[in-house]
Amino acid sequence: MTAAAPQGAQKDSAALQGKVAIVTGAASGLGRAMALAVARAGARVVVADLDARGGREVAHTVGGHFRACDVSDLDANRALVEFTQETYGGVDIALLNAGVATGCGVGDDFDPARYRRAMGANLDGVVFGTHAVLPALRARGGGSIVATASLAGLAAVPLDPLYGANKHAVVGLARSLGPALAPENVRFNAVCPGFAESRIIDHLRGMLSEQGLPVIPAETVADTVLRILTGDGTGECWFIQAGREPEPFR
Ligand code: NAD
């Protein structure tokens, strides 16, 4: 499976020179760090997000393009891929990262709109994004997809069970699509960070500091994505936690 390499080894190299990458949810947080990392490694980047202001800023920083996209909409995913092909001539990499916390449970606090929104971003975004980008990857002779799952996809999350369900589904997709897409020379992997530095954890900061729980720098997640992109593994779900070397979860 994946060849071992020291963390961040490819960080500043030109390992992705000539490649074209789409990064969803790239206006902030982990997606922003991923866009910066793949651009630093030589890729041309399309930043996709609902947030046009943040997305344009990141696109400007990486010398790429911004495309407004709601990943929960299949046609918007198709339009994103078409835009990238028209702009850069193809697509080699899709980092399907956009996501939201669910913010409701299944009891009295159940909120169907919140639930749908989270399913749309966290799960449909990965399924629709993969469906939309596959023909473009095939046209290049193959490519690489990395989905952002979560520690919540590997372990129980009583704090946000519906988010946990979304992310377990993404982990299941990575494990199944890895081998399923291998004959087409398309790799599919996932990253599974614990609490990482971004605005999605804003509502948890009090609890995290009270319990002395460390927060992972966004760059650590981005470095792991780079490591996956420059490796040869597929169907892997990389567990990322503070103070430990990221590794595929077995
Ligand atoms: P964030 O809120 O900083 O970034 C999420 C981005 O996704 C935002 O820019 C937002 O506008 C965008 N987005 C949300 N819904 C969208 C949609 N339907 N279409 C397009 N864009 C949309 O949070 P983050 O932590 O950087 O989140 C990135 C990913 O990382 C998410 O999938 C999240 O579930 C996952 N994750 C985060 C952590 C963490 O602790 N920060 C841990 C594990 C996994």
Would you write up a description of this structure?
By secondary structure, the protein is of the alpha/beta class. The chain contains 7 helices and 8 strands. Strands 3-2-1-4-5-6-7-8 form an 8-stranded mixed beta sheet, with helices on both faces. Strand 5, helix 5 (161-181) and strand 6 form a beta-alpha-beta unit. Helix 1 runs parallel beside helix 2 (52-62), helix 1 (29-40) packs across helix 7 (218-229) and helix 3 (74-88) runs parallel beside helix 4 (112-139). The radius of gyration is 17 Å and the shape is globular. The model is unreliable at 1-10 (pLDDT under 50). Residues 24-25, 27-31, 49-51, 54, 69-72, 97-100, 120-122, 125, 148, 150, 193, 195-196, 198-201 line the site of nicotinamide-adenine-dinucleotide (NAD).
SSE map:
Elements: E1 20-24, H1 29-40, E2 44-49, H2 52-62, E3 65-68, H3 74-88, E4 93-96, H4 112-139, E5 143-148, H5 161-181, E6 186-193, H6 205-210, H7 218-229, E7 237-240, E8 247-248
Parallel strand pairs: 1-2, 1-4, 2-3, 4-5, 5-6, 6-7
Antiparallel strand pairs: 7-8
Helix pairs in contact: 1-2, 1-7, 3-4, 4-5
Nicotinamide-adenine-dinucleotide (NAD) is lined by residues 24-25, 27-31, 49-51, 54, 69-72, 97-100, 120-122, 125, 148, 150, 193, 195-196, 198-201.
